[in-house]
Protein 1
Amino acid sequence: MSERSASLDALAGDARTGARAAGALPLGTPRPWSPPATALHVPRSEMLRYLGHTGQEIEDGLGARIEAAVEDAERVSAPRGVSAAFAVDASGTDAAGNPCIRLTGTTVELTGRDIYRHLKDAEAAVVLAVTLGMESERRLRLLGTLQPLDAALFDAACSALVEEAAEALDRAAKQDAARYGLTGNWRFSCGYGDLPLEAQGSLLDALDARRALGITLTPSNLMIPAKSVTAVFGLFRADALGGGPVPAADAVRSCRGCARAGGCAFRARGTRCYR
């Protein structure tokens, strides 16, 4: 065994050749997360973006309904999440012989050039999942049968809120990693670049998120509750970067691979659902 491998094994407590480890950072243990009471709020600008707003004047009546939808979304939603760090193994190949990322101790295999570039130099990767819970799902279905406009407003509010929850958990995980001298790149979700949605299930399994958060998958790999997000980002030794930026995928987020791309309202109006 090489000196480098022995060092990694000592750091991670895991004798898997090729796996990178993140010092004393706890690996492989999912950690539950919930925001402090009243800490998360629907960002109005993001909600309006989901609604396709491009600066038009909002009449008083519609403005009041938007505010009611925001209050409704914040009242019925129960944001929760879970995250865990895993050693990264970038030494293997997928079934087609292409380089891929595997997370040690899990069944996660992340294929595609974009995610490989994003994580290949990482010492570890953090997987996270957040959800607003089933109550927001039930509320949306009820509104859909009673008031289609209010349902659309509520749906946009919840979409903005779950992204806010993902951002909050992302920040918390990176703050925790910083205590170990690690810094993270941006979070990468299934459907970004050429990372297929099929990886969704293994990410949920790595976090035990089906049990912990009640998230399940449809046959087309969409999550239920729909207002749920999974993502992964790399952790890098801050002093090894020499003051430079953290590595990241060359590709920006894209619609390629998204199961909803065919009937997407965002694409129909020439925009997208992500920033």
Protein 2
Amino acid sequence: MGNPEGLRALEEQRLGPVLRRRDQVQPGTTDQRLLDTEGDSEWVHTDPWRVMRIQSEFVEGFGALAELPSAISVFGSARTGPGTPEYDTGVRIGKALVDAGFAVITGGGPGAMEAANKGAREAEGISVGLGIELPFEQGLNPHVDIGVNFRYFFVRKTMFVKYAQGFVVLPGGLGTLDELFEALTLVQTRKVTRFPIVLFGTEYWSGLVDWLQNTVVAQGKASAHDLLLFHVTDDVEEAVAMVTKETGH
């Protein structure tokens, strides 16, 4: 079973499903590299190892959320301060969603996310926070009952859509817009079905809606039908009624 000295160099090497030839052949074997205790720790930053981390995040997320009842994801600015009208609206929306039979999912951070989690908790519902590793934010807000922290945005985004039956989007910044347009794209391309999207705050969202209608649709970059993929309202009860009606909840 040994490898006698003087054996000519391999021209072809198979490492699991990977084929290497000529100067891409690596010395040693996969087992040998696994069991070798020498060497640095740079391997934990390689792409194959990241794949395992990504897989583990999906597994943890699926495991934590698989038994959730019907849920709505609520988005909004992390910069919304307690005591402001927008924060109070977030609390009311969280409560109203729970009263309608939904769990509430947010990004788990401060601001509007915290407000919706607070409302859900005060209504004795299920309050979920899906956090993200960022250099400038500090963990999950105290109103989260089920929390999962993610390294990767795309894994977190999957959880927002997979375990929610709709989105309620409060005024927010780039992160909120990112989630909004991803959801709109998924509905437009029919990757998800029966997925209501409610924009809360007509004054805040009117400029975006005007731009979509008068520039994007007008120049043929989207169809007029795409404007029906979302609803805009200033009324908490109407927002909840919209997601309830479209989800058949």
Protein 3
Amino acid sequence: MEEQVLAERCRQGDNAARKELYEHYAGRMLSVCLRYAGDRDTAQDLMHDGFLKLFDSFDKFTWRGEGSLRAWMERVMVNTVLQHLRKNDVMNRASELENVPEAYDEPDGSAIDVIPEKVLMQFISELPAGYRTVFNLYVFEDKPHKEIAQLLGINEKSSASQLTRAKAALATKVREWMKQNA
């Protein structure tokens, strides 16, 4: 079914359309939740919560062309996960990685290209929750530090620092992987 028609039928409460929407987008939405949640069980719970929010708020969706439905759904999922993280005070409980420097040597871009995406996503999922959340918002959602700080209820400098430490930790993991797999 075409995206616009599917969205309209979901807006009207058509359960067959909702089922189709879920079956078509669940994998992608789970991957969005996994990026932030870090573990599959939590990500699945958050994805289901996100779909419930989607179904309840289709009246807020505005069709803006092909891909706008998926983009809106991803925003809802990210907001669902962020709400969960704030509620559980994850940003203030985040453990810091030992000996992660503020300065680091960024791996060569061509070297990173040989690492499978699944491995890179695993490295991201292994970051402490605070680092992972800031990294995802900055890299995948293209949010500036000011907005990240507002979304997470943290200081803007803390956002920048957590991003730097996340990048440093990832750079270390990439270099180690390259040594073992090159």
